[in-house]
Amino acid sequence: MYNTLDSHGRISRWIMFLSEFRFEIRHKKGKDNAAADFLSRPEFIAAQLQNATTKYSKPSLEQIKDALKGKGITNSVEALTRYPFTMAVADQTSVTVIKYLCQLFSIFGNPNLIKCDNGSCFQSQILKRFLIKECVKIEFNVPHQPEWMGLVERMNRTIRYAISKTCYPDYSQWEEALRQSVVGIRQRTSASTGYSPYYLMFGVEATLILGHELINKADHNSRDVELDENLLARVENERQSVSATCVPHFVVGDLVMILDYKIRKKSVRTKTDPRYKGPYEIQEKITHNLYKVKNEKGKEHTYHISRLFEYIQRHRDSHLSAGTLYGNVSQANKKDNSL
To answer: Which GO terms describe its molecular function (predicted)?
Structure first.
């Protein structure tokens, strides 16, 4: 160890800690060590590690269909602290969503903005009137762009896998497993922020059962320091949105093709299926690289620029309509057709 030429990492720490002692380390194979240390080989170690390598797969909807009994999970994530808030619901109607939001608002207060997908429960007029009454703005995600809601999608994946590990192989108690899983996620230290979502939300670490004391004395000075550290942690972890350096630009009136969303979903498709739809005409440019386009039937859609491609006409003074190519026909072609 002392004769190594390039000591770094753990070897360097060993040399520093053991430099005051004189010793020599010799390796002895396990098969030659008949009197092995008992503490280094606990009893029944193989039996204890039998289930340590069990692979828990994410349960499919078919596997837990009977256990769900028609219920579902509504999940929301606070954008800055990444604090999850979930609830098992009987349906996905607007009335159920309003009850869920009322419970959320009663604990954390009314937020300024809610971002959600384009589900029918969020598009209802009942929910919109409720949010107007609560002075909360609502912003819908771009259709067929789930990556824009990546924070919630990743949390759904984490919760789903946690329920699988907790309930495997019986999913009848999945609601209790949901509560336990969410509590663990809130108290787990995030690798990206360095703090737990619980700490970033409330300013103190969660009290575990083992560390709970019957008598807790209030320490206001420590509380002030914790609040300052919490505020500093929030400011340090705030990220600025960075756009791509090279983004295509379209003006009103340009013709574009739209990439089929099924390709990005990696669904099974035949080679003969078209990859693009269109052409569409640019009507308006919106913020965040969104464009409002109109198809040949006059119906308007909103797409992100990542799905737009320039439409190049193959024939001069021609256009596509209903899958048929029309254009100027020469006199010679007309004579040939008449014959």
So the answer is: nucleic acid binding
Cα distance between residue 19 and residue 13, in whole Å: 10
Measured distance CA(37)–CA(117) in Å, rounded:
60
122-131 own/partner pairs: CB under 8 Å, 24+ apart: 122/94, 122/97, 124/94, 126/94, 126/95, 126/98, 127/94, 127/97, 127/98, 130/98, 130/101
* CB 143 within 8 Å of CB 259: no
Section 224-232 average pLDDT: 71
Considering the entire predicted model, what is its pTM?
0.49
More confident residue, 7 or 85: 85
Domain boundaries, the chain: 65-209+219-236, 255-330
Residue 268: exposure state from Cβ atoms within 10 A (0-12, 13-18, ≥19): exposed
Q: Which of 161-170, 215-224, 268-277 is predicted with the least confidence, judged by mean pLDDT?
A: 215-224
Provide the CATH number for the domain formed by 65-209+219-236 in this structure: 3.30.420.10
Q: What is the mean pLDDT of residues 144-149?
A: 78
Question: According to the model, what pLDDT value does residue 333 have?
Answer: 45
Question: Measured between alpha carbons, how far apart are the two ends of the chain, in Å?
Answer: 97
Name the percent of the chain in helix, strand, coil, to the closest 5: 35, 15, 50
- Residue 256: pLDDT above 90? yes
Q: How many residues does the chain have?
A: 339
Domain 255-330 listed as CATH 2.40.160:
no
pLDDT per residue as tens digits for the range 297-336: 889 999 988 889 888 877 555 444 444 444 444 444 444 4
How many CB atoms are closer than 10 A to CB 75?
17
